[in-house]
Fold this protein.
Amino acid sequence: MTAAASTKRRIAIAVSGIVALALLASPLPTAAASAATAAAPMAAKSHPTKSVSKATTKAATKATAARTQAAAAVAAADYSSIFATQQPALTNSGWATCAAAITWSVDTGGLSADEAAAQIANLTWAFDQWTPASGLAFQYTGTESLAYDDAAFSLKPANGSAMQSRHVYLAFVADGDSARLGGGTVGLGSPSQVWPSTKEIITGAAVFRTDHVKQANAREDKSLYMHELGHVLGLAHASETSNIMYPVVSDHTDLGAGDVNGVRSMNKPCKAAA
């Protein structure tokens, strides 16, 4: 499946079937975790206090520092391409770091005017967090009506106009209108078109479950948006909870070292867009 060629007659691959989801974290601890927490103070009281030598304390401090450094190294290397498993030929595709901003628009159908304004502000904030990390600039161009194809996971202008290049399409979708959204799945995101010769992503899309964003607080919405935008930028899920690409989103709103290293490693020079 292909999209229209550019003036140089290059063909952009329309990405189909590559989509990554965000899961909602449970707000309550498990019964086992609760029991362990409750038992901890009693267990601590059952042990007498012992004196510890300075040498032992120093050794323990060094061991703790070593573990911290090792954990930081693991988190920093905790990233991969969204294409790695399903379309390996496109692995490490990324956006070009041109001076011109990547534009984005959003379909706010299903939200009230006040809700739409709040979520556009949250989305703008989320894009802004990725700017210093990625070296990419983003610019909001307004709301527009978009047609969502759940089976193919695609967002296109509802009026039939051509998709813009270097553009991200976003929409709020009711879970009843999507077989992909529902249960714990509250967002989906992916690149939409890629130049295969240069591995440059030129369009992306993300959708968010309407009922979730209405019920969640601002930090939770921002966390979701940052996560799905990471997929749009080419990142797959991460394994470390310190990275925003960890698949269970809550109210975490800080990019991790793996997020930053990942998006920077996948960016393409602007000449790729020429």
